[in-house]
Amino acid sequence: MDMNVGPAWARGYTGKGVVVSILDDGIQTNHPDLIDNYDSKASWDINDNDDDPMPRDNEDNKHGTRCAGEVAAAAYNKYCGVGVAYNASIGGVRMLDGSVNDAVEASALSLNPDHIDIYSASWGPEDDGKTVDGPGPLATKAFINGVTKGRGGKGSIYVWASGNGGRHVDSCNCDGYTNSIYTLSISSATQAGMKPWYLEECSSTIATTYSSGLLGRDKSVASVDMDPLMRPDRLCTTEHTAPLAAGMVALALEANPNLTWRDVQHIVVMSAKSKPLEKETGWTTNGAKRKVSHKFGFGLMDGEVMVTLAEKWTTVPRQHVCRTPEVIENSSRLIVTMNVTGCASEASEVRYVEQVQCVVSLTMVPRGNLRLVLTSAQGTQSTLLYERPRDTLSSNFEDWPFLSVHFWGEDPVGVWSLTVINGGNGNVRKSGTYMLITISHVYYR
Ligand SMILES: [Ca+2]
Ligand SMILES: [Ca+2]
Ligand SMILES: [Ca+2]
């Protein structure tokens, strides 16, 4: 269950020269299994505004250090285990141990973008099954600056955990950080290849790594642990939960440092494997013949295939963004169809779909009753939103950019349809007052 990282190491890729920063509650900079790979230029303490991201020692602030260990715990030193990219440079931004606002997020996302290659984060709105929220104006600008100017213009790589709100039937598409085209949104599978209890289903998840499952039945992730007192029995843990994707991407970037942020997304899509996760239900095959799931995206990440693809990768053509005209419905019509031309014979002509954003404004009360299904011209159905029983609020969706990666590689031309379903148990008190839809196919030709 090593996600084929061993063969990538055997080809000589261990993350050397690649810089990863964990945006979390800090990083124990003097940890014996991290100290050799620690990179102060990939680190900052936003909470205390200094250059030392050492976590506050109150038993709560262990997560960032553990995540750093997954990526870059050193090898051959008798401490703990081995990071996926055990020769990568690793830093941490201390930002979650205080009030987190738009400005805090933006400064974390835009730290030293010509030095840091990969930012890894697992925060966002509450996983309570009723919140719909995303990056504010400053964080949005930071993402856009990162992908356009970071890494010398090749684009910063943002790796994001898809969320832990499974217990509350949350949807990761209601989280504007995972639901962003700029982040690689990564889900988790148990060691048995099943959906863990905390998993959130949605169409913006691109791929999956192993993580923890049910305590006592499934193993968790082994990593380093935060202990400033350096007690040998407290310096490692076998009880960590977090996707391992940042280290996997570091291996691919070492194999080919010229990869752009979109190249990395393509490589993740093409290398992910559905097979180890097919015991779990819900796989469909899209119009480009790729298996995809709302639980796992395109499947389990594979280190060997990632570096092999990276080695011989040709940069994808420039991104074209094609928007369909808005559709405004003032009724409670349940199926909205759109004729998509793919902007044929325009400068933004699109031949292969990457992401599809469906921007929706819609009122349904209770909001959690709503299910939205987008069907492509090729007949692929992707659920943009599953019902969220706890979402009993009377708030709207206002210009919410639901993202699906499920149409990746399809020809966009033809009739697309969005189906609005009242899927909840409760009575709808109000629905369909107005609806506004645009679809942007973000893709290349
Ligand atoms: Ca500090
Ligand atoms: Ca070690
Ligand atoms: Ca969530």
TrEMBL record:
Catalytic activity: Release of mature proteins from their proproteins by cleavage of -Arg-Xaa-Yaa-Arg-|-Zaa- bonds, where Xaa can be any amino acid and Yaa is Arg or Lys. Releases albumin, complement component C3 and von Willebrand factor from their respective precursors
Stretches for region Disordered: 39-62
Alphabetic keyword roster: Cleavage on pair of basic residues, Disulfide bond, Glycoprotein, Golgi apparatus, Hydrolase, Protease, Serine protease, Signal, Zymogen
Top-level taxonomic group: Eukaryota
GO MF term set: serine-type endopeptidase activity
Biased composition (Basic and acidic residues): 53-62
Cofactor or coenzyme needed: Ca(2+)
Location(s) in or outside the cell: Golgi apparatus membrane
Residue ranges of every copy of the P/Homo B domain listed in the record: 308-445
GO terms of biological process kind: proteolysis
One GO term describing the cellular component: Golgi membrane
Enzyme Commission number, as recorded: 3.4.21.75
Family of the protein in this entry: Belongs to the peptidase S8 family. Furin subfamily.
Protein name: furin
Species annotation: Ranatra chinensis
Species lineage: Eukaryota, Metazoa, Ecdysozoa, Arthropoda, Hexapoda
